[in-house]
Design brief:
Blueprint lengths: L3 H17 L7 H14 L3 E5 L5 H9 L5 E6 L2 H13 L6 E5 L2 H10 L4 E6 L6 H11 E10 L17 H16 L3 E6 L5 E6 L1
Parallel strand pairs: 1-2, 1-4, 2-3, 4-5
Antiparallel strand pairs: 5-7, 6-7
Helix pairs in contact: 1-3, 2-3, 5-6
Bound molecules: S-adenosylmethionine (SAM).
């Protein structure tokens, strides 16, 4: 079991560090949502796409008392290095495995190797959620949760005034939202939490 008070203090320090360095991590209210879902759901195996410096993976570990195995994918090698240092520091390196590389390359390998997860958290490039989805859906156990963060992308997905540089990601997210709504294999609710979070339960 993890030493929770130490972890709580050190995680708040890691949040401060991420904010100072402009490293995007889950918003405070998104972490509350994750806490509630994780404590109800108690997943054995978690997959995260988008590790950054390991804040959310550490938070997930903390909420599951260190009893959950977490695979987390990150394509920025400096961040992979920093995340590994943080997992060592928090004493969770044995249960949190960072998989370095591009998620669209790694997900097919995880699926082919027969991996299954109870909880999948997508927090990576918004324009790629549609590409991640088929692999995530196939690796998610029945009764498992798929959590997609940032689905409203600073409100741009709901309005028609996205700056040119974000239009591709905004269109991709709109398509992703419609696909989740239409998917008969999932029950999905869209929450305003953080930057918009889709919570999908696999039937
Ligand atoms: C918002 S940050 C993740 C924050 C982290 N989940 C947290 O809350 O602590 C997104 C991260 O996803 C990584 N990323 C984006 N698209 C990716 C992809 N296609 N494959 C792997 N990593 C990706 C970025 O390099 C970035 O570090």
């Amino acid at each position: 079991m993890l030493e929770i008070p130490k972890l709580t203090y050190e995680l708040s320090e890691l949040r401060k560090y991420a904010e100072e360095k402009y490293i995007p991590i889950i918003k405070e209210d998104t972490s509350l949502l994750l806490e509630i879902l994780l404590k109800i759901h108690k997943p054995d195996k978690v997959l995260e796409i988008g590790t950054a410096i390991g804040f959310s993976a550490t938070f997930i570990s903390m909420q599951t008392g260190g009893l959950t195995l977490i695979d987390t994918i990150e394509r920025d090698y400096d961040k992979v290095h920093e995340a590994r240092q943080n997992f060592d520091r928090f004493d969770i390196a044995e249960i949190v495995k960072v998989i370095p590389g591009e998620a669209t390359d790694i997900l097919p390998c995880l699926l082919a190797s027969g991996k299954k997860y109870d909880f999948i958290f997508i927090d990576a490039a918004k324009g790629q959620y549609n590409e991640f989805f088929p692999f995530c859906f196939n690796m998610l156990n029945s009764g498992g949760l798929l959590i997609s963060d940032n689905v409203y992308f600073h409100g741009m997905v709901e309005k028609d005034d996205a700056p040119k540089k974000h239009i591709t990601a905004v269109r991709a997210l709109r398509k992703y939202i419609e696909m989740l709504k239409d998917n008969d294999g999932l029950t999905t609710i869209f929450l305003e939490t953080g930057d918009g979070v889709a919570v999908s339960l696999k039937k």
